[in-house]
TrEMBL record:
InterPro entries: LysR_subst-bd. The keyword DNA repair does not apply. It comes from Dermabacter jinjuensis. Residues 12-122 form the LysR substrate-binding domain. This is LysR family transcriptional regulator.
């Protein structure tokens, strides 16, 4: 679906890049600013807003997103389908089980699905997000599964996390609408992938 909000950036305008919790884009910003000829870079934290919705409505030009992302829209706003976006894979996140420190499961270095049988699993959605899930688990109730980056972001003294041996991880991608592709977006994704001014474009 081609959206009017996803029109190309205005000439000379800042590049607005959204990022989700668990992603630290500062290193990419420093690389970007090594060339003074590049447009201004604005980093936009997306703490509560779904990255796909921020991208679809034009709040950001590009976004660091976590796949798989929520296929069910959270609002009645515009939606970008998977085939409508460029999504450059960057790195994979290992899933972990967050548990209370006094939970006997904390004695294991790694957990399997069978280890968690009999324990109640709290979804991030029902707890209002990863921070709420960590707080719920800290009270001594069950466990929650999330990427390791989020477990570290919301770490508390009364909880810990253990890697899950049998669960597929999530992947961080850099995404932007195909209908709004331009040289600036292409250059930014090259910088994120480690390309320098001397590198040839792939």
């Amino acid at each position: 679906m081609k959206l009017a909000e996803s029109a190309p950036r205005a000439a000379g305008g800042a590049l607005r890049v959204g990022f989700i919790p668990g992603v630290e884009p500062d290193v990419f910003a420093r690389r970007w600013h090594t060339d003074p000829k590049r447009p201004e870079l604005q980093l936009v934290p997306l703490d509560d807003r779904a990255p796909e919705e921020a991208l679809a409505c034009g709040a950001v030009d590009m976004v660091f997103a976590r796949l798989p992302w929520n296929s069910a829209p959270r609002s009645a706003g515009p939606v970008l389908k998977r085939e409508d976006i460029h999504a450059v894979p960057l790195w994979e996140e290992r899933p972990v089980a967050v548990i209370a420190k006094d939970n006997p499961l904390s004695l294991s270095e790694e957990l399997t699905e069978s280890d968690l049988e009999g324990e109640h699993r709290f979804s991030l959605e029902e707890c209002g997000g990863p921070q709420g899930a960590v707080a719920t688990v800290a009270a001594g109730n069950g466990y929650a599964i999330m990427p390791m980056s989020l477990a570290r972001l919301h770490a508390r003294k009364d909880v810990t996390h253990r890697p899950l041996a049998e669960r597929e991880g999530t992947r961080i991608v850099l995404a932007w609408p195909k209908s709004a592709d331009d040289d600036v977006r292409q250059e930014f994704q090259g910088v994120v992938r480690g390309r320098t001014a001397r590198s040839s474009r792939r």
